[in-house]
Amino acid sequence: MHYLAVNPVGVFVFDEENKLVKFKYLGSNPEEAAGKLDKFEKGEIIPEIQELKNEFKDLNSEQPNKATDFLRENFRKIVIENKLFKTENELNQFLNSVLIAKSKLSISKIERRDKLIIQTISALNDLEKILNTISERLREWYGLHYPELDIRDHDKFASMVAEYGDRKNFNNFKNSMGMELREGDVKILQHYAKQYNELYEMRKEIEKYLEIVVKEEIPNLNAMLGSTLAARILALAGSLEKLAKMPSSSIQLLGAEKTLFKFLKGKEKSRPPRFGLLYLHPDISTNKRELQGKIARVLSSKLTLAARADFYSKKDMSKELLDDYKKKLDEILKANV
To answer: What's the angle, vertex CA 242, arms to CA 236 and CA 247, rounded to 5?
Structure first.
């Protein structure tokens, strides 16, 4: 019977008397060795082991076995005696390099889906600013030609400009005090308006994607806040881990840091802020001013539990959290009728 043992250096085969009968390096460099060691630890059969199995039909490759214990206790002696490395210093350098490479590999495979949410909401915020800027510019620019065009909706305004171009093409157009435009002027305006429309469609796609990824990755926060507000709270915290470790009072004030610092420095004579971004939650923004602080405290306490559930247990407790929150919200509202 032959026994297989694997470590960062390579693959060892020992006989019944613990004599090394075969050895194969895991790789010519630490990165390759780290990659193969990672695959082996996941239960995958690497080429070196498959070759040894073909060569030794009685090979016991189950881990651990008598060879793994023997190798662990006599590793350095075996390596030096069999001249697998010239010196112990060379062995140490190789082992350190493999372990560093394996650590980097492990870190790179850690899923950071919360970072995707943060980047998505940041992209959405950027698009919102860009669309507002383009819309204002388009209105001023096209207003030189047709100032009487009264369409409040930015998206509809851009679509109309892109479609009709010259004011004469609009339905019910009679006259205007605006300047005449040449064909080239109209074309560039239409192109500009089309760019707005394309960005607007992109925003809608990103919003749909955000709803999906937030519901999948942070279902409890999503249930309490909705996808957009949950993503913005997460972005302010920096990561789901940081949010899960925050006390409810810190979550309540996310987004109000500047006001809080001014108050602490004595620059603000008014009261300290009661909430930050949570003001956007309809239960807070639509209620009486004297109730907003109480509701924000209840909501933030539930958000603490939601964030911890999303980060640590990955358990969907949204129904339980939401029911409890609504119950406490009703108590606050009834007590102040």
So the answer is: 90
